[in-house]
Amino acid sequence: MIAVCLAAAGLAISLPFQAFTLNWTHSIEKILWEEDYQVVQTTDGARLQLTEARIRGSGAGMEPPPDAVLENGVWHYRPPLAPLARLHLTRSDYVADYKLCWDGQCHPLAELAGPPSKAPLVDVFACPSS
């Protein structure tokens, strides 16, 4: 099984899952965003495929795309992106941290990679196969 890896401030950890949700709260509007990712195999190796995104509102440059569907107050859509080699996450002590969710549990990045002041940049990627 290909796992998901995090790299931050010289730290590299492997997490035992192939699908996860990344969520965060917009710093101005205080609205939750969620993105679902799945590890997929491509001709270039394992990559992260964004399979669905959700926005729990709109405003301040965060309008849902034209094809988004509103269900129970949440906009759902599928961004037309090719599989990604890495997610580059920039963090700050002044806003709520990102969370990674898998197996029904969410974990702040601070729990996994340390506080933003010590690890302001975090990369998320499919671990290289051994």
Structure description:
The chain is mainly β and 130 residues long. It has one domain. The protein contains 1 helix and 11 strands, in the order ββββββββββαβ. It has a 7-stranded antiparallel sheet with strand order 6-7-5-4-3-9-10. Strands 2-1-11-8 form a 4-stranded antiparallel sheet, with no helix packed on it. The chain is globular. The mean pLDDT is 91.
Number of strands: 11
Quaternary structure type: single chain
Mean pLDDT: 91
Query: Within the largest sheet, what's the order of strands?
Result: 6-7-5-4-3-9-10
Q: Distance N terminus to C terminus? A: 10 Å
Q: What portion of the residues fall into strands of 2 or more residues?
A: over 45%
Count every helix, treating DSSP H or I runs of 4 or more residues as helices. Answer: 1
Poorly predicted parts: none
Helical fraction: under 10%
CA gyration radius, whole angstroms:
15 Å
The major pleated sheet works out as:
7 strands, antiparallel
Could you say which overall geometry the principal axes of the C-alpha atoms support? Answer: globular
How many discrete domains?
Answer: 1
Sequence of secondary-structure elements = EEEEEEEEEEHE
Structural class: mainly beta
Topology of this protein?
Layout: E1 4-8, E2 11-15, E3 19-25, E4 32-42, E5 45-55, E6 69-71, E7 74-77, E8 87-90, E9 99-102, E10 105-108, H1 109-113, E11 121-126
Antiparallel strand pairs: 1-2, 1-11, 3-4, 3-9, 4-5, 5-7, 6-7, 8-11, 9-10
